[in-house]
Amino acid sequence: MSILHFVYVILLVLVAACFQPSHVLAAAQFEDTASPSSYLNNSPCPNAEDIAPCVCTYWDVYHSLDIDCMSIEDEQQLYDVFHANIPDPNFRRLDLGTDNLKTLTDTVFGDVTFETVWTHSTGFYGILTSVGPETFMKSAPTLRELYMPYNNLSNFPFQSLSQYTELTDFVLHDNPVSNFPIIQSENLRYIDLGAATFDIIPTGALDGLPNLEEFDVSSTTSIHSMAA
Ligand SMILES: *[C@@H]1O[C@H](CO)[C@@H](O)[C@H](O)[C@H]1NC(C)=O
């Protein structure tokens, strides 16, 4: 390992160390301000055993449902969870563990919708390698934030992003995205493709993004050509 590589790895570890606790803290603060009521008889959560190992939380003050699928074991299990009896299919947040998930098929989430989707891995990188063009399409009118950092996505159905009418934040940093994606979206404000592997940003690449405020391509291997 060259000294540069070594320094790079140390930097990545530092960045990871700074990055993770702030989100843990954010979650903890959120939980302090309200009490979840997933145990209530009138909770719109599915039966706990129908969706195990995922866990549903109902926040009655917000009238919103979150689902935590951090411990999901494989694709079939995820499919079964979202095709169980789900009385209210409109979730606010999905947290999805990608230690054991390689693929998110078009049909995996059934009729369930989300506003925020986060993937997580317990190691540094999850193994998620493919997302279908329709995977989140039921959420096209609701999805605001899609965060899938630290995975193995060399490609993503970027062209489908134009159909997500509420999507403002799209984060794919630390994925081996090999071609600069041409994205069309009226709403996207924040895109993060940091540490991707493309080396050319084509002319007009940002033309389809009228509301873009920030496009992060930091630590992308080496960008040779850049067009404003
Ligand atoms: C990452 O994706 C590539 C294909 O793009 C695949 O060959 C490789 O096996 C994947 N790695 C893991 C850890 O899944």
Brief description of this entry?
With 228 residues, this protein is of the alpha/beta class. It has helices spanning 3-32, 48-51, 75-82, and strands at 55-59, 64-69, 93-97, 103-104, 116-120, 130-131, 145-147, 169-171, 190-192, 214-216. It folds into two domains: 1-34, no CATH class; 46-227, Alpha-Beta Horseshoe (Leucine-rich repeat, LRR (right-handed beta-alpha superhelix)), CATH 3.80.10.
Q: Any idea of the CATH topology of the largest domain?
A: Leucine-rich repeat, LRR (right-handed beta-alpha superhelix)
End-to-end Cα distance, whole Å, is: 36 Å
Q: Percent of residues in helical segments?
A: 10-25%
Q: Number of helix segments? A: 3
pLDDT < 50 runs, ≥5 residues: 6-32
Helix and strand succession? Answer: HHEEHEEEEEEEE
Strand content: 15-25%
Give, in spatial order, the strands making up the sheet with the most strands. 1-2-3-5-7-8-9-10
Number of strands: 10
Look at the helices and sheets and give the structural class. Answer: alpha/beta
What is the second-level CATH architecture of the largest domain?
A: Alpha-Beta Horseshoe
